[in-house]
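User: Predict the complex.
Assistant: Input components as received:
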Amino acid sequence: MGSPSALPSVLVAGGAGYIGSHTAKALLRAGFQPVVLDNLSTGHRTAVNYGPFYEGSISDAALLGEIAAAHRPVGAILFAGYIAVGESTQNPSKYFHNNVVEPMQFLDHYRELDLPQNVVFSSSAAVYGIQGSDPIAESSPMDPLSPYAETKLFFERVLRWYGSAYGVKSACLRYFNAAGADPDGELGECHGPETHLIPLALAALTEGAPLRVFGTDYATPDGTAIRDYIHVTDLADAHIRALRHLMNDGSASFVANLGTGTGTSVREVIQMVERVAGKTVPVEYGPRRDGDAPALVADASYVRELLGWVPQHSSLESIIRTAWAWHTREARR
Ligand code: UFG
């Protein structure tokens, strides 16, 4: 809860999570008051430090009404999604409910409120499925290979139709591989269970259980899979630019990739972790993980042109340094 701010408020649904909490911090720095709504099912109360907090469901009409009355947000940023690709194939109901049904209920309540209808949505490069090795543009074919990916594409389409029918303006941001931690050390990545490469490589250093490398037989220069790692602080900045763009009269809804355009292999990540930490990562090599693409690299030219967004923190070294600083700090707690 909190009292009204002199700053324009932005509703951050899922603002206790990894990207949401970094975005809340960036919003405050950019002159907005983040108002976080999160049910804490996967987020962390300790990551909500930059404005009022409401604990509850994004589909709770009464709670949304209360937030609207108290803060009059100029827009909403919709994180609040489940993200585990593997789990989504085991339990699609959980994913369609949380990532489609509840966000639709949210939208239906939100558009009943007398508020500017600007919505920034967390989408994913997962909508593209497995492509060739060329950078992926927004116009590339889409082939969602998991319920998780389907939910992201489905909700993009919901937003498109809600735009033409009800005037909701939206920005769907397709993240490539979010990584790194707040450069001030206040926030970081903490999923349970963790499935992502960089936090697992760091945990292998401090906890000793080897990192399993999924596949060394890809048709890539070193045989391991290639991804486009983008620093979470750069992602946060892109959300603010997207929101500001939507707030401008006359601007239209859009869909954009958020990546650097540079591919990095699993082996290159491990080498950088070793360089930054000064220790050898214990590794065991295993078969490919089901559903993994050999290479996923963004063509990020559209968003650079549209929003003037140029990643500032996304060198591999900066990603690993900030993630390692966060990891060692958390390990000491
Ligand atoms: N990897 C390993 N060992 C691990 C974990 C990952 O070798 O223990 C490899 C993966 O095979 C992949 C790379 O490291 O080649 C990156 O894997 P992550 O699990 O960190 O990330 P993904 O590329 O699988 O997933 C990301 C996002 C998802 C999104 C997906 C597709 O986290 O939300 O990209 O765009 F769906």
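The longest strand covers residues 118-124.
Let me know if you want any component modeled separately.
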